[in-house]
Amino acid sequence: MADVRPESMERITTSAQAQAFIAEQVEAVKAQVGNKKVLLALSGGVDSSVVAALLIKAIGRQLVCVHVNHGLLRKGEPEQVIEVFRNQMDANLIYIDATDRFLDKLAGVAEPEKKRKIIGEEFIRVFEEEARKLEDVDFLAQGTIYPDILESGPVKAHHNVGGLPEDIHFEGLVEPIKLLFKDEVRVIGRELGLPGAMVDRQPFPGPGLGVRCTGAITRDRLEALRESDAILREEFAKAGLEGKVWQYFTIVPDYKSVGVKNNLRSFEWPCIIRAVNTVDAMTAIIERIPYDLLDKIVARITSEVPGINRVLYDLTPKPTGTIEWE
Ligand code: XMP
User: Fold this and answer.
1) Which CATH homologous superfamily contains domain 15-199?
2) Given ligand 1 and candidates 323, 325, 326, which is best to mutate, with the most ligand atoms within 8 Å of its CB?
């Protein structure tokens, strides 16, 4: 498949168009790989999940999915990947909990670009090690989409999980969605039966919570981040904001402030809420969250999350702030 989207290619919006695309790709993948095995790094993000579902349809257990948990995933994510792919779709799925390995490598590292580099490189190392253990894997599948091909020069080193292992030789690449835009990928995902929570999920960076646990990551602060993020997501969903706000998450920075909890002095981290709307992530505006909802979130985070005594709302558009803090 060429790397350029033909002008004649219609935008996929309907179920019938999605069915046709799926049927076409299933045949193409079968023809490309025959009875050989294909390896895929399955992060649980929209793109790799759609590729997994598509390839399972085409070649079933000839597809080997590797889900690497780098310890920087959101609450419930690895469990959801295992439930959907292993239990519901009968995928050939290898799950690797590499949390300790990543957090040990990141210990004491405060510089944002260095953190991103470590996470990206370590991910490829773990994936390569797994690939080497599997003897007869010939193809590598990737969730490349059209904007990945078009995009140039980001402000930050973007390390998408699923980067190409450098010193393993594969017979070829399988990239069935590389000419699709994100909205089309979601239509295909829905048609393949993936759950809404997976297909419509908000963007999540490859380095995960690592770029939101600012400075040198510690396990206790990472846990506070994960819990506060889960509360924010739960409250946004209850308020019906899930599909309306493009991206929303929390940040827990590496400094503390004085507060009072249960009539006692506390010295704990603040938690920062960021909720933005954007079309292409190049610029972003701040979502005007109702104060009542913010009050509820503040009350829950400060009472339910150990180590947090203050909640702030980031009012900075992009520019001058980037969406992520690191
Ligand atoms: P920034 O922070 O640059 O983010 O305004 C723009 C969008 O990109 C996401 N982002 C990433 N996505 N790998 C990704 O796949 C990354 O390393 C990465 N860094 C930032 C960010 O969440 C936002 O949606």
Assistant:
1) HUPs (3.40.50.620)
2) 323
Q: Round to whole Å and give the CA distance between 28 and 143.
A: 16
CA of 37 from ligand 1 middle (Å) equals: 32
pLDDT at residue 243, as a whole number: 87
Pairing label, strands 92-97, 63-69: parallel
Which token pair is 151?
A: 């995009």
* Ligand 1 lined by 203 (C-beta under 6 Å): yes
Going by CA atoms, what residue is nearest to atom 24 of ligand 1? 203
Residues 202-240 have pLDDT tens digits of 999 999 999 999 999 999 999 999 999 999 999 999 999
Give distance in angstroms: CA of 158 to centre of ligand 1.
Answer: 7
Distance CA 139, CA 165 (A): 12
Whole-model pTM?
0.93
Beta strand 137-141 with 37-41 is: parallel
- Tell me if 210 CB under 6 Å of ligand 1: no
- CATH 3.40.50.620 domain locations along the chain: 15-199
Q: Please, are residues 78 and 97 in contact by the beta-carbon 8 Å criterion?
A: yes
- H helical segments located in the chain: 15-33, 46-59, 77-81, 99-106, 112-133, 146-150, 182-191, 196-199, 219-238, 291-304
Mean pLDDT confidence for 86-104: 98
Pairing of strands 264-277, 247-251: antiparallel
Q: Is the CB of 155 under 6 A from ligand 1?
A: yes
Residues of the chain with CATH 3.30.300.10: 212-313
Q: What is the architecture of the domain spanning 212-313? A: 2-Layer Sandwich (3.30)
At 166, list the tokens.
């450098």
Q: Decide: residue 133, CB within 10 A, 0-12 exposed, 13-18 middle, 19+ buried.
A: exposed
